[in-house]
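Task: complex structure prediction.
Instruction: return structure tokens for all chains below.
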Amino acid sequence: MATHTPHSTLDALINVAGDTTDASMKTAKMPIGIPGFTLHEEERTVPASEPPVWPINKDLSYVGKPQERWDGRAKATGRARYTADVQLPGMLYARFVNSTVPHARVLSIDTSAAESYPGVKSVHVIEKLLGGAVLRDPTLEQNRYPIVRYVGQPIAAVAATTPQAAEDAAAKIKVKYETLPFVVDMDQAREKDSPQVFPGAADQAGTAGGGGSSASGVPQTGNVHGPAVHKQGDVEQGFKDADVIVDAHYTTQVQTHSALETHGVVADWKPDLLTVYASTQGTASVREELAAYFQLPMSKVRVITEFMGGGFGAKFGAGNPGVVAATLSRKAGAPVRLMLDRQEEHLSVGNRPSSDQRLRIGAKKDGTITAIQLISFGTAGCGTGAGCAGPASNLYKWATLHVEENDVFINAGPAAAFRAPGHPQGAFALEQSIDELAASLNMDLLDLRDRIDENPVRRVQRQIIRESAIWKSRNPRANADVGPIKRGIGLSQSVWYRHLAMDSAAEVRVHKDGSVEVLSAVQDIGSGIKTVLAQILAEQFGVPPAQVEVKIGDTNYPVGPNSGGSVTTASLTPAVRDAAWQAAQKFLASVAPALGVKASDLTLTDGMVRSASGKFQPIAFRSAAARMDTNQVSAQSRRIPDYDPRKYDTYGGVDVAEVAVDTETGRIHVKHVLAVHDCGRPMNPVAVISQINGGVIQGISYTLFEHRLLDPNYGIMVNSNLDKYKIAGSYEVPKIEVQLTESYIGQSSTDASGIGEAAGIISAGAAIANAFYNATGVRIRQMPMTPAVVLAALNQPKPQMEAL
Amino acid sequence: MNSFSLADCTTVEAALSQLKNGAVVKAGGVDLLDRMKNGTDTPNRLVNIRNIRELRGIQSTPDGVTIGALTTLAEIADDPTIRAQYTILSDACGHAATPHIRNMATIGGNVLQELQCWYFRSAEFQCIRKGKEQCFAFSGLNQYHAIMDYGGCPSVAPSSSAVALLALNATIELTSAAKGKRKVAIQNFYVQPDANPHRFNVKADEELLTAIHIPKPAPGTRSAYQKYGEKESHDWAIADAGILLEMDGDICRRAVVTMGAASPVVRRSKEAEAVLTGKPITRDTARAAGKASMTGAMPLSMNGYKVQLFPIAIYRTILLAAGQMERDPSAAG
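Output:
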């Protein structure tokens, strides 16, 4: 647990963090559980300076109520300024020169023609590359330039006065390669005589954003980095104790993040300050990396993200675009814009690793799981992070567990954290095998999960599913339809974890004119944190959210969380509420003299300043503000630990998919999805639903269409665009019904949690596969489920059918 | 993209006078600009014909219909005459690409668009269609490639509208400054890769595609086109079917079955047509025709599924044309 130092020294009033002596603590009764199902009160010991406990959403005014996006109008009208829209005086345009071969030693780089090209202001040759695994013993490779390990690896860059000049000049840089043997197929890379991506063992440090990296220091044999082994109990005994064993093999493909906005920055290097406008999920992470890379004080780096067009886990840190743009700017003495194009976006800045999983589950007749064994291989290109054992380890109760995760290096761009790293792959296997287990035990799918899943929220979610119209319409008999188009319904569960980013702080200001503002370096990656912050201030001061000023996405403000791993709302909102509460107390102290009372006589509720002693009739907040004895009061607060840190909570959801399988064309049409999810207190239900809609669509897209395709003979990605890299479009979006299970856990002053990861993408694959089974009586254990894959599965001689 | 000069023309004469020294015609720009951005095409001069008014519009004539080369796919798809009498063409134009592209893309550009093979579209691969020796698809990734008639290049015909125009016996009107107008039957318009791997069609560089004539269908004609992709929104065909049936009561007097995504050049399946001719259209005859369409299929390493898919596409589209089946949900896009 991180230590907590107050950021502000304004006065003792705001000194709430870290002080946990008994005198400073109080008890608070908090709502716990799910309204309509398990709601009750529990007592928590909390710092005395914490604001009063919020009731459940129905009793609040702004928080928990559907709220239009605070910046929706700016986005819809084009007024929102994204990174690529930033225009600075004298700004230059940069282009990378990228490798055209999958594996090579760069012998020489001739930049002379580019340097003298009209309009070119600076040229940079990369000698230190970011991303991917690095050799444990770096002396195994000695070369002036980084070894090329994939097509599209950045090698150099040019900044010029126009984009065209930059592109033309970049084309004039001559790179001389000594090509090396390469491998882009994972199965081939696992073979003994395969070309080696690294000449020795290599590891990749973990990145911000919640997972993505496998253990370092594990064995490495050829290209196989692993296994990272996790054992609990004697799994062989567990299988001996089992009455039934299901054993299956699953494969999933590499998916690229494909955010609409590509990676990019505008870097402005000035002697006294490096300012970087970045498309990032973490202004803090970009500043940290730039400061470290250039050995600058943190105070001399400023990162700004006003609006962001998607990241999904791939946009943490400055990365190669950030450091290269800053270098070019320093050399040229002018601001430099470097935005990747779509091909570069597919190749060099991350992807979701593939998986090849052998999963065995043993269970007693009553469903009790005696053993889970998962042996997985996956490729994160020339990086690591292909582990996918999260669901198998954490979704159900088991007696013994044996997990072996292996990364397989291939000559492809390194993976990055991608929305619930490892979990869509893991759940695809696990939740199909659990369905198979239920069938072989002759148990109902929900009854078995009730037996083996201890999570109280998912129990309620399954109850909601059980009573839903879609589930009731499900024919438990597989392959029941007679025509060529068969309907099927299936479900899958998901799990994610309560991660927190303790470096989450905010400042709230109240001005004498009654305006209020909140400031935090946090970036809104599209999930709507701006709106949520406005709602929190609205709740505190009684002004509509649209009238709250929200200033975020700038490291000049108090430090914000990096948005990955579903941490943003859970981490930041308590700090904002605490700051708002403290600012309100200071505001009351500031108006008390003019109102002729002591501050302790005053409260601010529902937008009215009230006197407990009845000295005066309630006064509207804005009128009272005019009587402040100063122009501005402010309070800053940062995240304090969860009230009961012993409670380690997971979130999840249960998703039901209805599909129509065209058994003649091999097309799967997802018709309807019911997504039942929890995220603690939903701060802005429409934004939560929007994230779940997005997760479901992204999950369908991953399951049915998306596939990075590398030519086996040349190592080149053949579909590095958004035309042949296929992403779900409007026809592919089903009816999506989202039901939120408002779930109180009593952990903070907002009691909010996150939704980004658990939202649909984890369970879509297995829910569709289980629906496919229900429709056809055939298991489909491979993604993406294209017509080629579906027809091949349907053409197989049918194994004995599962009963359910 | 390379630098280039642009001539903006508003008359056919002006455009024709510009078509020399490697100048390339730009109409809607949908396909050309993609190729220029990919670096596969690097013309030094573009002749913009998009604002030539006389080349835009649909005219009914006593013998059929004449479609100006600059008429957009959306205009053709929405035209009442085309929808009623040339349904196969409104189907093909109305389900190509996306609504946005259909609003920009012209019929001339659609007919002339170049191969969608991903090797052809990558500047990194210098293939047989770019004047080199090699094809990369045979030993590479070929899941979307041809299953018949491919010779040395198994790319597939990219134009949906051409699948319909072949069934309709359309004629392509080509105009040049030196020789004026000439007409080429659509079945002679495209060049088989083995006949000349470096040419896709018979249009000369100095010629402009100015119009497409379609003869009036015989009485009793019913037609339909369906495109099957891996998804409905913005996808290329993995199988498609153009069906034209001349009905005499319940009996099919004449049938035309055309396919695009099976071969490098749009083709008719005489085998499938023979199954239908002189017979009533039923599920059985439609299935048999679909099956017959795969005579001579030689799938590559990764596209065997297309041999299963095409007969279904043809079977269902025959029934759609005959009014015996709804449009397929798998071909909605």
